[in-house]
Amino acid sequence: MTQKLLEMAGIGKDRLHLAWVSSAEAQRFTEVAVSVTESAKAQGKLDSKALKMELEAAEMTLDGETVRWLVGKEIKITSKGDVYGRKWDVETYEEILDDILEREFQKNLIYLAIKEGSASVRDISNKTGLELLRVSYLLADLEHTNRVEFTGMEDSKPAFAAL
Amino acid sequence: MADFEPKIVAFLCNWCAYAGADLAGVSRMQYPANLRTVRVMCSGRVDPSFIVKAFKEGCDAALVAG
Asked: From CA B43, how far away is CA B51, in angstroms rounded?
């Protein structure tokens, strides 16, 4: 899940490595250390300043209620069913998680773009690289949850402010 | 970039990978010095937001080993 989000944020999933090393396997540890270092060298420096907004949005997404709840309930949803008694198989669950991860990440990106001074839908779209239609769709969502406020028209364009 | 030394944050489980890393040191094995180790009591302790935070602070790669 984290690798998917890192990919979305433009960091690249290959920058996160997972490995299993037991306490008796010093040789294996050195192998892992070498391979991780080589892969990091091959990928070059991560420009964390240029990706500041994306990283912030990724962190907000991972700390956000929606994703935390959904991940915490995985076993329950896929084995016992949700509150409506519907059972989900693991594939469906993961598809939903992917969708929600993407939506939450983009919403946080929009929120941050507004906070940094983009007011109109076009400004936000330029700043985040998301399509106009997607931005206005997610803005409606953000308005519902009181994270963003419609402040009025500026040169006959709707303007928004982050709360 | 031949002389680029990446910064890698490594989250090592106290009981598995950390002991493995310790053993590698004790038995004088050579391995790259790019890892910055964070010892955790279990690799399940590592929250995804720790990793994003590490990237925010300017590391180039992250490793979770258990």
From this structure: 12
CB contact, 8 Å: A13 with chain B? no
From chain A, the residues in CB contact with B63 under 8 A are 16-19, 32, 36
This prediction has a pTM of: 0.82
CB atoms B59 and A46 under 8 Å: yes
Convert the pLDDT of each residue in A90-123 to its tens digit.
Answer: 899 889 888 999 999 999 999 998 888 877 888 8
Structure tokens at B46: 């590592």
* Residue at B2 is within a domain: no
Distance from CA of A79 to the nearest CA of B (A): 22
d(CA A95, CA A19): 25
B28 interfacial to chain A (CB closer than 8 Å):
no
Domain assignment of residue A16, given as a range:
2-43
